[in-house]
Amino acid sequence: MDVRAHMSMLFHLDKCIGCHTCSIACKNLWTDRKGAEYMWWNNVETRPGMGYPTGWEDQEHYRGGWKRTQPGAIELRLHTRPQGLANLFYNPALPSLEDYYEPFTFRYEDLFNAPESDDQPTARPVSMITGEPIQIEAGPNWDDDLSGSNLYAKNDPNLKGLPAEVQAQLHEIERVVMNYLPRICNHCLNPACVAACPSGAIYKRAEDGVVLVNENKCKAWRMCVAACPYKKVYYNWATGKSEKCILCFPRLETGQAPACAHSCVGRIRYMGVLLYDADRIPEAATVPDDELVDAQLEAILDPFDPEVIAAARANGIDDAWIEAAQRSPVYHFLKTWGLALPLHPEYRTMAMMFYIPPLSPVVSVVEQGLVKLDLPPERVDFELFHRLDTARMPLEYLANLFAAGDAERIRRILRKMLAVRIYKRRESVDGAVDAATLELVREAGLSPEAVEAIYRLTTQPTLEERFVLPPYHREQAIEAWNDPLEHKGTTGLGFLQPPKRGE
Ligand code: SF4
Ligand code: SF4
């Protein structure tokens, strides 16, 4: 057992209000500069929809992630090594500017400098590439809230393979439904971006699993951009280097949550340590599609298990990190209560950011212009529990997003979420929980104590409960790489890389 620690984020999609505060916090902090105009390390998509860059989930087009070639073996979908060599100077699977959008700004000075006139001056949009006026035709959240539209929702790659009636259900005008999907780099355990980089410039930090690009080593081959199935590496045209989400590691190292998580208005984001067994990665990444989620969950270890604790200590993991793993909200949502899943496990990158799928409204009918549930009021709660098949967001659709097509897994999670709601409603509205509700909770695989804990962590968590961040002990991490005595002489001179004679 090779125990490692990973900082992971969890997104509770039921709570995301699509305000994009997270994206703006990230933009202002990390990508507000030349060459990074079109980069959205954090973006929020409306589902069903096309996402950003357009149709990023269509791997037949973009060829991202891994594919299983035979039992126990996977290879990059992008290319084999000889093909990679042949395509070194021409990468046919890269997204183009049209797949993102032409970055633009507005000529704000026109507002101040316009001559006096009867007309209100306007700030014209101009391209940030050419400086010329442009007609804006796309943006990072262009299809925001346009679920049900023929242009966006109907072309969602996740609808592929769904029965015609399920697809039709998503577009019936009275049943149109949508939810938001915030995305950052998943800091995967089996990252395709790392595997595809010919320069060895991308690496996964040992101490917390953050995947980073070494800007000094990057030679702009852009294989990482093509190989990441989530399209979360971007090419900076000004510096000629690739860039990606760094999980705000400078903030983590100083005990602060990433900016996207800290600023999240819906408080949908949680952060915590997960302990995992690095020895299990090769097997977990190569099992058949329907075993992928279980294999990944098995690789994530129980931080209360004495054997795991001993192996973690033997690997140099600090006790404070082990204790943080025990209090990790991500661990509890993911493993203790079984409520969360990785995004698109079938890409086989073993994504380490997790999502709680959204509970969508249930089917209703329109009567005399009013939308009503087609159920008698006294049956509503219990019937809903068994009628997830008629939820407006089809289980099959959510399964394509989070469970490699396994709708039963989504059903199990949504039943748990419904059970929590029904239990708490009985308690707060009726003042008591009846036997039928207790049976419902048991049937969903929960206990009243678990319901209370889920309810509390979902609705009323403090900042410290949402973000359980251990001390980083940078002094130890740096000593593992550099000899502190070697740097003693440069203290105070401010060298990041001291000059060497002859260079
Ligand atoms: S999501 Fe992040 S770590 Fe995973 S393949 Fe893409 S860039 Fe690499
Ligand atoms: S800030 Fe939070 S609630 Fe708002 S869009 Fe981002 S993830 Fe959703």
UniProtKB/TrEMBL annotation:
It is found in: Cell envelope. It is an enzyme of class 1 (oxidoreductase). GO terms for cellular component: cell envelope; membrane; nitrate reductase complex. GO terms for molecular function: 4 iron, 4 sulfur cluster binding; electron transfer activity; metal ion binding; nitrate reductase activity. Its cofactor is [3Fe-4S] cluster; [4Fe-4S] cluster. Its EC number is 1.7.99.4. SUPFAM superfamilies: 4Fe-4S ferredoxins (SSF54862). Keywords: 4Fe-4S, Electron transport, Iron, Iron-sulfur, Metal-binding, Oxidoreductase, Repeat, Transport. Residues 7-36, 174-207, 209-238 form the 4Fe-4S ferredoxin-type domain. CDD domains: NarH_beta-like. GO terms for biological process: anaerobic respiration; nitrate metabolic process. This is Nitrate reductase, beta subunit.
